[in-house]
Fold 3-deoxy-7-phosphoheptulonate synthase.
Amino acid sequence: MIIVLKQGASPEKIEELSRIFNKMGVSVNAWHGTQETVLGLLGDTASIDIDFVKAQPIVASVKRVQEPYKKANRKFHPDNTVITLPGGQVIGDGSLTLIAGPCSVESEDQICGVAQRVKAAGANFLRGGAFKPRTSPYAFQGLRAEGLELLQEARKKTGLPIVTEIMSASHLDLFEDVDIIQVGARNMQNFELLKELGKLDKPILLKRGLANTLSEFLMSAEYIMSGGNEKVILCERGIRTFENFTRNTLDISAIPILKNRSHLPVVVDPSHAAGITWLVEPLSMAAIAAGADGLIIEVHNDPARALSDGAQSITPDQFDIIAKRLRKAKAVLSAEGLDTGVTAI
């Protein structure tokens, strides 16, 4: 249930009304915007008399929400969520966020060298896998704890915040010094892991599962947010379809739909979606035009010898060129007001 309050409602009256709802067995999520204040009632609201709510002096309007996700729902939080990291980096403020780096951390020279190059090209964050979920048990599984240490070394040398994937709640202690924790597609519905991440005060980059609907995707975000951590970044990384030319099929329509249904930032992973180097740039352009807040792109210093996903990784030289083109495209779209991802009809 969503309650829009009348302008000028005092904090005391809002608190008094919230206590009434608390006694009814529901929690109240208050959002204070520039034009209005909205109360979102979370829990079983079926027994709450809507006429009783409408009769309250400070209430302007009331409506029930059918979607099962509440905290991730734009109806409860009309303004876009902007996530600010301790170092001042921002995601979701209307600018283009670029997250770049190799699929896997392989050595200090590799990760530090790539970090220096992508920073020089304008990347805001460094990505790199320390723990790697692979389809084959015989494939490279990552350097694990050593990989995290190398990522932290790259951060020391460049100042870039690091983004890396967690695979198990048992690894949480190792991720205390990670700036953004990534949840991979295979773990999107690992609900026990999501619950643990909900207890943190740290941004979580949540990737959509290979065959999950957008409602299921948002419900996974809800798991994290319901635990108290509302710093969630949604990542569209392609879904599995009957098409086999590409590794996955990038669902461009997901971007405006997510921006319409949720207030959370949306980034796109064109590398995993395509699985092909030359498709990274056009898919990135399409994502920006559809309203994505950022991109997460795989960059490797020597893709032909990469221990994982070399076929979809671009070189630092290619990233230099692509990053410039992406920022130009973003500037043009922003000037025309065409980069929000939500079109009024």
Q: What stands out?
A: The mean pLDDT is 93. The longest helix spans residues 316-336. The chain has two domains: 2-63, 83-336. The chain has ten helices and 14 strands.
